[in-house]
Amino acid sequence: MAAGLFCISSSSLEQTDLIAGDRAALLPAPFREWFAARGWAPRPHQLELLNRTREGRSVLLIAPTGAGKTLAGFLPSLTDLAVRPMRKPGEAHRGIHTLYISPLKALAVDIQRNLMKPVEEIGLDIRIETRTGDTPAHRRQRQKYAPPDILLTTPEQLALLIASSDADKFFSGLKYIVLDELHSLVTSKRGHLLALGLARLRRLARGTISIGLSATVAEPDGLRRWLVDQNPPDMMADIVTVAGGAKPEITILDTEAHVPWSGHSARYAIPSVYEAIKRHKTTLLFVNTRSQAEMLFRELWHINEDNLPIALHHGSLDVAQRRKVEKAMETNSLRAIVATSTLDLGIDWGDVDLVVHVGAPKGASRLAQRIGRSNHRMDEPSQAILVPANRFEVMECRAALEANYLGAQDTPPLGEGSLDVLAQHVLGRACAGPFDEDEFYEEVKSAAPYAGLGRATFARVVEFVATGGYALKTYERYAKIRRMKDGRWRISHPNVAQQYRLNVGTIVEAPMLNVRLTRKQGAGGNVRGGLLLGQVEEYFLETLAPGDTFIFSGRVLRFEGIRENEAFVTNAAGQDAMVPSYAGGKFPLSTYLAAEVRAMLADPSRWKALPNQVSDWLRIQQDKSVLPRKEDLLVETFPRGNRFYMVAYPFEGRLAHQTLGMLLTRRMERFGARPLGFVATDYALAIWALEDLGHMIRRQKFSLGALFDEDMLGEDLESWLADSWLLKRTFRNCAVISGLVERNHPGKEKTGRQVTVSADLIYDVLRTHEPDHILLQATWHDAATGLLDVARLGEMLSRIRGRIMHKDLERISPLAVPIMLEIGREQVPGSANESLLGEAAESLIEEAMGA
Amino acid sequence: MNLAQRIAWEAVEIAIAGERAVCDPSGALYLPADRLLVVSDLHLEKGSSYARRGSFLPPYDTIATLKRLAAVVARWQPSIVVSLGDSFHDAGGSGRMPESFREHLLSMMSGRDWYWVAGNHDPAPPESLPGHWVSELALGSLVFRHEPARGAAGEIAGHLHPGARIVQRGRSVRRACFASDGLRMVMPAFGSLTGTLNVLDRAFAGLFSRDMLTAYMLGRDRVYPIAGELLRA
Question: Cα A163 from chain centroid?
Fold first, then answer.
């Protein structure tokens, strides 16, 4: 982004001159001179945006990376500040003039560096500072006393700032709010918190102008509403769109090598990818999951005969290791970096001239943004290669290119604002000073995600903040916020504000354990020290037995044991990893290409567009099993290892399959099939069980028609949700965000493990005794929007009624291979757990009887 | 159902220092010889204890625990009940307990010898509740106290909230458990808002002879004896 801020190529310079002629006058003289001295001209969209803000309008700028988006966003405030009268000696400090908010700390720091350069060159007297979790206390203190002109910060820091008692003074002079990477901010709970913060800022400083910077999205109106006050409803910010620049040159990897029927490693492509790395200056290799990153990195080094500097970067690695890689990137001393989404957003990584994406286009729909990295000049086409890891992905890549799918981001699902976030915000509002409930309700409704919030629900959230909101009113005397005589709410004790500050934010980490490398095998419990390799989700480590090997941090490791918050491992170089599926960082995205792939699959005449090996695969499937017609559902059953599998191929996308999996396993449990777990992909759903499923279907212990009956979406859905572990996980997040469970007590931090235990217990108690509690409603809502995709599932179930083909096989079919390798560790609660306990008990009996 | 049937279908009979004892799936221990029922770590009024500090946990934990206690008392009809310490989550807990809960508890206590053993959460007798207040209790070869002491054979203790974890077929199952090596026992916490601590944690070090340790894991309606070597940290 640094290099791209002001660069402009000659071709669009002419264009600029034509359009910008009269508009350039908007710029103060020092800016015009500065541009001229460099032989540059401001771009039309930069001036257009400036023009709109001069008219007092908030603006959404949609532009591809490299279009000078950041400068466009800051031009209004820089030009404004340039003509501002000097502060006279002795005059009080002015508040913040411009607030910049980015999703990433690193981005805020990056922007500061990039902004300082022109500011100094133009000779502007402007103070620009960052404020993040890393900012030392003394500097924060000083920022409060003498605010900078431009403050660069994150949504969490904004929440803290508006919750302080001097927020009104601090923000009273605020003119502009610049929101970077808006498309990625708005889709999460962080976005909800930020929207509420924005509503607050609009009250603290009337007439503040919002400027949203976004990558290309399919439907920008949601973002336009998000930027402005929703009173009156459906108001929208202006929009300035920059046409896409040069189209990226995206190709599917062309290789002689055998494309595997299955898997996600793309091992087959390693030699071709390595050749591509050699042909380019710097290559970024993106993968969808951490385990893929580990695998790819290791494989590349395996054949790295030229000893090219190739590095690995993902979120689980230790910070020190990540910083080292980032440093090396900045100085262009790397030839290739293997990365996951940790490197996704607009950070500057030196001279990347090729992006390789391993995996299906669902990851690649983010590719537009990622490809942006490969070229800072928007007018030159960027180079990108898609590497499908298996044959389903070949079809999906093909379908994606044919449907011209990769140009735009999927429309961000701008759902209703969540109530747990609102609860956090209500407490923050009270920390800043007393509030009137009706007035505050109007303010909250002015934030787009909460525009539809009912008055009664709002009152329940306030009650929840005050005393927990239980039907049984036993906590009145411990209330956190109380009504004063004049009816306004205030916090009941200064401690409440202190606690609030420690618990701000919407990101709840999955419980993680440190992974420490030791020398001594089998010593798990008794060793200390050793190199810290990074962190891995607890649920993954819990399924390992001592002696199991897995890949992490670019090496094969042997698991030795867990002690408190650390997992101990030893080097197992030279061995194969026994546990391949460390699924950390899986994309929760669903793809809209599934129907397209289904059609391709059903129509052999379209297979010609596919590589021979892929069409061969489909022919073998036809031979060994069957291929479903476009509207049919194929269900295969087969044994494998000590389990029995059922694989269905609805091609409806992962979310719908996940819901289907949860409901089917519940039913199968009732039918006595003792399901153990399931896994869902965009194409298929696999369920495994202790009982022989094929046999049960043949013997009519249950019928597939009954299993897939639509009525599952009624009571089954309700009752499944009630005791689902997924709902427990969702509840835990809601409990933490809403402040029911604190992640931090002053002086005492709860570990993730402790939070998990207590949140599960709370969930059980609450569900039994107050199933209508507002937090359970919030949990249900999160689950329904995030995990279910019920509508799509319903359409599918009615489509396949009477059209289910069952194929009982002796072994896994070619089509089933991809999903079988996806098998993670999603759990089904219920009798299988009891069976496992029973089995373990049996072994004790065996031992006792056999001795 | 007679005693034998109850044991066969629901609970597991074991011996502790030679005394017969039955592990009930609710987490209570029954000693048939003395018609004595032991429960540990009820942590009554834990919810309100947290609420005082600003975390509004559901105010239903006490009634949930009392209902489960009433059920297990009705099942075994003991003449003696021992509450093995941490009966209340904090010193003010019994005072905060709503009147209806107190009456519920009183009706369970009536006609029985009820012993409140002192715990670290409740070092003083509960307010306005009957029953004997003791720091520990000896009966035959057994001794009942809250915090386990090293090398104490025949001891039945609580305090540590033991839980155990096994991994079968790549799946992890974690449950509260009775922990015993045949000589002594640490009871699971009975309270409905109480977490667990893995029996392989350092806090249990030196209590059991490792090769004799069995975790009696609490299932939905059964107790599962799991050998020490199958347990995972």
Answer: 26
Is the bond preceding A232 in cis, omega lying within 30 degrees of 0? yes
Residues A52 and A126 both lie in one domain: yes
Which DSSP string do the residues of A559-571 spell out, in sequence order? EEEEETTEEEEEE
The domain made up of B3-230 has a fold known as Purple Acid Phosphatase; chain A, domain 2 (3.60.21)
State whether A453 and A379 are in the same domain. no
Nearest by CB to B55, from A469, A525, A740: name it: A740
Integer CA distances (angstroms), A437 to A161, A441, A445, A500, B35, in order? 21, 6, 12, 20, 58
Tokens of B203: 């806090």
Q: What is the pLDDT of residues B185-195, one digit of tens each?
A: 999 999 988 88
Which of A495, A742, A744, A762 would best serve as a mutation to test chain B binding (most B beta carbons within 10 A)?
A762
3-state secondary structure of A320: helix
Q: What is the DSSP letter of A5?
A: T
What CA–CA distance (Å, rounded) separates A229 from A121?
37
Q: Which residues lie across from A566 on neighbouring strands?
A: A514, A563
Closest in B193, B214, B227 to A761, CB measured: B193
The two structure tokens encoding residue A187: 């889709």
Task: With CB atoms and an 8 Å threshold, state whether A769 touches B170.
Answer: no
Confidence of residue A411 (pLDDT cuts 50, 70, 90): low
Q: Is the CB of B87 inside 8 Å of chain A's CB atoms?
A: no
What is the phi/psi pair of residue A403, to 5°? -90, 5
Question: Is residue A792 a part of any domain in this protein?
Answer: no
3-state secondary structure A759-808: HHHHHHHHHHHCCCCHHHHHHHHHHHHHHHCHHHHHHHHHHCCCCEEEEE
Asked if the C-beta of B1 comes within 8 angstroms of chain A's C-beta atoms, the answer is no
ipTM: 0.82
Vertex A770, ends A767 and A773: CA angle to 5°? 95
Q: Is residue A541 part of a domain?
A: yes
Indicate which CATH number applies to the domain containing A396: 3.40.50.300
CB contact under 8 A, A844 and B195: no
Chain A residue numbers with beta carbons less than 8 Å from the beta carbon of B195 are: 754, 757-758, 761
The first and second tokens of residue A804, run together, are 């289910």
The pLDDT assigned to B77 comes to 95
Q: Spell out the alpha helix ranges (H) of A285-372.
A: 290-302, 319-330, 361-364, 367-372
Is the domain of A86 the same as that of A215?
yes
Count helices and strands (H / E) in chain B: 5, 16
Chains A, B: CB pairs < 8 Å: 133
Pair A399, A333 in one domain: yes
- Rounded to whole angstroms, the Cα distance separating B91 from B101 reads 17
Q: Which token pair is A745?
A: 């007590």
Q: Please indicate whether, in this complex, the C-beta atoms of A840 and B230 are within 8 angstroms of each other.
A: yes
- CA separation for the pair A395, A372 (Å, rounded): 25
**pLDDT tens for each residue of A350-399:** 577 888 888 776 654 555 555 554 555 545 566 788 888 877 788 878 87
Residue range A738-773, pLDDT digits in tens: 988 877 544 344 444 444 447 778 888 898 889 899
